[in-house]
Amino acid sequence: MLGICRGRRKFLAASLSLLCIPAITWIYLFSGSFEDGKPVSLSPLESQAHSPRYTASSQRERESLEVRMREVEEENRALRRQLSLAQGRAPAHRRGNHSKTYSMEEGTGDSENLRAGIVAGNSSECGQQPVVEKCETIHVAIVCAGYNASRDVVTLVKSVLFHRRNPLHFHLIADSIAEQILATLFQTWMVPAVRVDFYNADELKSEVSWIPNKHYSGIYGLMKLVLTKTLPANLERVIVLDTDITFATDIAELWAVFHKFKGQQVLGLVENQSDWYLGNLWKNHRPWPALGRGYNTGVILLLLDKLRKMKWEQMWRLTAERELMGMLSTSLADQDIFNAVIKQNPFLVYQLPCFWNVQLSDHTRSEQCYRDVSDLKVIHWNSPKKLRVKNKHVEFFRNLYLTFLEYDGNLLRRELFGCPSEADVNSENLQKQLSELDEDDLCYEFRRERFTVHRTHLYFLHYEYEPAADSTDVTLVAQLSMDRLQMLEAICKHWEGPISLALYLSDAEAQQFLRYAQGSEVLMSRHNVGYHIVYKEGQFYPVNLLRNVAMKHISTPYMFLSDIDFLPMYGLYEYLRKSVIQLDLANTKKAMIVPAFETLRYRLSFPKSKAELLSMLDMGTLFTFRYHVWTKGHAPTNFAKWRTATTPYRVEWEADFEPYVVVRRDCPEYDRRFVGFGWNKVAHIMELDVQEYEFIVLPNAYMIHMPHAPSFDITKFRSNKQYRICLKTLKEEFQQDMSRRYGFAALKYLTAENNS
């Protein structure tokens, strides 16, 4: 408040000065024009008419006065400029929720004036502001390719969503990998007033592949050049962002800058904050041509309609062809070509204040862009070192970035009240399903979980795997939460084949997992493990949803449906592939059972053969799985027969049977109504049976359950009577659904349940 008052006093003082100085000047001139009490005219004609004694002396006095007048007028003009700057620096008034305008800092084409303005302060203008209507859609374009860039996009989008008050339309130029990841993410995120369109980056490669590029972004770093051709013809303007950007303000403020473009200005850019284009970073450093320090293309405002009329495509191509004759390749991808075009056509650019792109690269001058935290608008991690870059205030910037990195994305599902949103079929169906539930039902929370849409980030880490050509490949499928991370390395050592894992984590836990994985030599050496993050929401562990996510995203014809706390025997992967051929799984409906055992010892000398396992069973080091608490779950496997079996044998389904099986990838999904503990696998095996799958026990396969602390869900099951009542209700409803779907074939399950 004190700062506002001081600003107003300065404004008032400057205004009075502007009004008073001309008046004082004229009084001074008027009084100084009297000679001997008689007025001296400033006009030569009047002087001659009134004073016949007009002399050379009076002529000199008149000329002296005219010079003085011009000096005073120049001082007045200078004062007006200072007053204008003072208005620009005056604190903006607080905006209420009803406001439809956003203040926007003044840009300039003069870098020295820009730096002077920055030193003076970066506060918003309080004069007339460009208007951004409350429900005006803001268009944002991002080029994204690969697994790592997809993670970066999420953090950028979070920072934009956190501050935004307008509908957003993201235009994502993405390769097939990024499109799969981000399409699923936005579909499950379900953020109101956000639309996402994808454009196939792979189809654009031919447009820029002729340009040699040394930048780490590769060919995708050149694709911003072709946005006029790629984006819809009716799209007039767009904000273009790099994936390593973090917003610290409402993006509508940046959108408002378009109203400040004049004449032929079609590009809004921030001056480059390193000395790269000055060519003095090292001996024989020869950068591409640029205007002064050049411009950084991490944040670009594009007037697409005017660029198309100017034949932008032809303009940048001709410039690139000419410069490549001498430069041979680009060092900074599209940025070099943008700068070369601007060098020849400086009228194209509107220079943004540098706090719209605070560049945290090496040798940066970004510290001149801000005096205070409130000055920051956009942070750009444009060094290959990213968060490890050297900067005086890097710790603050890193914390700001980590805030959005770990921010709960579910909290960004905010409605924009007063803004109509496009009809979303998925959202409407969800609301309809939820409205049909009885909120007074004691099992309401269980039923609601079945319809909860969990935000899902597929392939959180790099994934690279081509299934075996012989069509026998098998993927191990499992799910886990944060408390089972320690099992990952052991499973990777036991199973060399592809793995698909669904991890139930919060945003903060996802980053902990990322650091854990990146610090593990075992996990980083494996590129055939797909990690799919399903973000936490609600009070139950959605075990069957997680299984379905992991099942859906496998690339092999077969899958081994396991749990994370089991270690498969060494060599199981190859054994299963041979069994697939032996049992003709490709042409028959079979479920191959891998017998399950358990140990109570945290340190176990893992058996390397069936004979060694049988010996440990006899010594009491190993047990058949859950023999002492849930015998029915695995009793039909017939462990007595398995001990001496040398060939696969068939077993019949029995009530509560829940073995671990290998099936074709087209098998039915798990039923989502079962969450937490109880009946989640039993229901799935029941459905396999009703679909006439044969259960075949493999004689030389086994898996061992490792000990761990009880899960939160099993604790709730044991301690909460209502939990058990609701689980029983869900079981009955599932069996009724089975009867409706499969008719007479499902009647045996009702009978078996009654007899058990």
Automatic annotation (TrEMBL):
Stored CDD domains: GT8_LARGE_C
The protein's annotated pathway: Protein modification; protein glycosylation
Transferase as UniProt keyword: yes
Molecular function (Gene Ontology), one example: UDP-xylosyltransferase activity
Ranges for region Disordered: 43-62, 83-109
Chemical reaction(s) catalysed: 3-O-[beta-D-GlcA-(1->3)-beta-D-Xyl-(1->4)-Rib-ol-P-Rib-ol-P-3-beta-D-GalNAc-(1->3)-beta-D-GlcNAc-(1->4)-(O-6-P-alpha-D-Man)]-Thr-[protein] + UDP-alpha-D-xylose = 3-O-[alpha-D-Xyl-(1->3)-beta-D-GlcA-(1->4)-beta-D-Xyl-(1->4)-Rib-ol-P-Rib-ol-P-3-beta-D-GalNAc-(1->3)-beta-D-GlcNAc-(1->4)-(O-6-P-alpha-D-Man)]-Thr-[protein] + UDP + H(+); 3-O-{beta-D-GlcA-(1->[3)-alpha-D-Xyl-(1->3)-beta-D-GlcA-(1->](n)-4)-beta-D-Xyl-(1->4)-Rib-ol-P-Rib-ol-P-3-beta-D-GalNAc-(1->3)-beta-D-GlcNAc-(1->4)-O-6-P-alpha-D-Man}-L-Thr-[protein] + UDP-alpha-D-xylose = 3-O-{(1->[3)-alpha-D-Xyl-(1->3)-beta-D-GlcA-(1->](n+1)-4)-beta-D-Xyl-(1->4)-Rib-ol-P-Rib-ol-P-3-beta-D-GalNAc-(1->3)-beta-D-GlcNAc-(1->4)-O-6-P-alpha-D-Man}-L-Thr-[protein] + UDP + H(+); 3-O-{(1->[3)-alpha-D-Xyl-(1->3)-beta-D-GlcA-(1->](n)-4)-beta-D-Xyl-(1->4)-Rib-ol-P-Rib-ol-P-3-beta-D-GalNAc-(1->3)-beta-D-GlcNAc-(1->4)-O-6-P-alpha-D-Man}-L-Thr-[protein] + UDP-alpha-D-glucuronate = 3-O-{beta-D-GlcA-(1->[3)-alpha-D-Xyl-(1->3)-beta-D-GlcA-(1->](n)-4)-beta-D-Xyl-(1->4)-Rib-ol-P-Rib-ol-P-3-beta-D-GalNAc-(1->3)-beta-D-GlcNAc-(1->4)-O-6-P-alpha-D-Man}-L-Thr-[protein] + UDP + H(+)
Keywords recorded for this protein, A-Z: Glycoprotein, Glycosyltransferase, Golgi apparatus, Membrane, Multifunctional enzyme, Signal-anchor, Transferase, Transmembrane, Transmembrane helix
Transmembrane portions of the chain: 12-31
InterPro entries to which the protein is assigned, alphabetical: Glyco_trans_8, Nucleotide-diphossugar_trans, Xyl/GlcA_transferase
GO biological process: protein O-linked glycosylation via mannose
Pfam families to which the protein is assigned, alphabetical: Glyco_transf_49 (PF13896), Glyco_transf_8 (PF01501)
Protein name (Swiss-Prot/TrEMBL): LARGE xylosyl- and glucuronyltransferase 1
Organism: Macaca fascicularis (Crab-eating macaque)
Organism placement in taxonomy: Eukaryota, Metazoa, Chordata, Craniata, Vertebrata
